[in-house]
Backbone:
DNA sequence: GTCTATAAATAGATAGAC
DNA sequence: GTCTATCTATTTATAGAC
């Protein structure tokens, strides 16, 4: 019994070659993009033979799609949970912001890869992953709609709110290295910009825009 | 005299091979990134022999840097003009937003390339171009500072405002193809999102955040 | 300035042994 | 599941003629 359990524990604690490949690939794709990524480098970083990439995945492209799928499935799940909660519309919007931030933070590769996919028009998104993306946007749309029906939000294009949330958040989380260079160049305030400050600001801005108050 | 003039006019009206290469390369780099870009394809799109790339520019990398340099020099110039104007702080912030939007619109390749550079930590930015980037951010910092000194703005980290401006604007201008796919997938409000709506929203949000009013 | 031909290196992918 | 060796295609870059 103890033996069986320790085997199971070991299987969970020790990363499999597949998991190590996924982690190394995520970092490589984030740093260099799909075209710039190199399968040899991915294998080396994962301390795994290159041929294993083609054993576990069909191709470099399939490996990349796998990473995209996990990313967007995770945000979609978080956001769905937000919508399903009992909170009032304004709090759901705040939770939506927090959900995006949390998902992005848990995956440092997420924001840069998302940026690149946007730049590429979602060229690598398969149907299933695209469905996750649209689900996220539609969910925010329904939250905004619900707020409007209840009389707490003014009529607002949800895509505007979406851009106001996703834009600054992704920019913040994707720009770590860039911000370091700006800080070195003497730009004031860059170093002081914390995750919590950004999230709070985005939350406030989104809710304020929705509530209007004749602004 | 007439001959001389017509020659000069011709030289201005007819794109040189160098100009055609720059235009084709900008589109290629925007669509596929630096690593994904292909010099053969650039040459073909420019209707120019591939060897001309190496005649006019030193390498693929040098060609890319040339495009980066022009992009950021243009925004830096626009933004400097905004700061030099006689407008009051809030209007300078609005003009800053408009300047970014105008520069981005005039160069469809600009937003996607900027996104990719952020994702890559500015790996391709040479010292001169990085100076342009920092100049833009610092300029906004001074406008915010000026507003605070004059008592019209609350004390605010300028980087927060910067992220709130650049994030949504770049996202909007870079996401044209992606938005089309979302519209096809039935996401409401995507098609209705106009450039002017986004710019006005970003302006309002930035100024409101700066003015505070105890929010 | 423009073109052809080609060098030289890189990188995705697979066969086949263990 | 893992590894070695290798094939093949792609692609940046240049030499040299016109």
Residues:
């Amino acid at each position: 019994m103890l033996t069986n359990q320790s085997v199971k524990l070991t299987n969970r604690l020790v990363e499999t070659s597949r998991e190590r490949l996924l982690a190394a690939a995520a970092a490589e794709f984030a740093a260099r993009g799909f075209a710039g990524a190199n399968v040899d480098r991915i294998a080396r970083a994962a301390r795994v033979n290159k041929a294993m990439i083609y054993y576990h995945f069909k191709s470099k492209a399939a490996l990349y799609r796998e990473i995209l799928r996990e990313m967007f499935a995770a945000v979609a799940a978080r956001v769905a949970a937000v919508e399903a909660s009992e909170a009032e519309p304004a709090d759901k919007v705040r939770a939506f912001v927090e959900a995006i931030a949390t998902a992005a933070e848990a995956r440092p590769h997420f924001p840069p890869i998302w940026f690149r996919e946007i730049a590429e028009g979602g060229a690598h998104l398969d149907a299933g992953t695209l469905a996750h993306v649209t689900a996220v946007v539609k969910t925010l749309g329904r939250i905004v709609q619900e707020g409007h029906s209840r009389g707490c939000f003014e009529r607002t294009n949800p895509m505007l709110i979406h851009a106001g949330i996703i834009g600054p958040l992704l920019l913040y989380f994707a720009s770590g290295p860039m911000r370091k260079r700006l800080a070195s160049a003497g730009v004031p305030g860059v170093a002081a910009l914390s995750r919590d400050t950004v999230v709070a600001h985005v939350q406030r801005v989104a809710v304020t825009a929705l509530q209007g108050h004749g602004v």
Observations:
- The CA atoms of residues 98 and 199 of chain A lie 7 Å apart.
- Chain A touches chain B through 64 residues (CB under 8 Å).
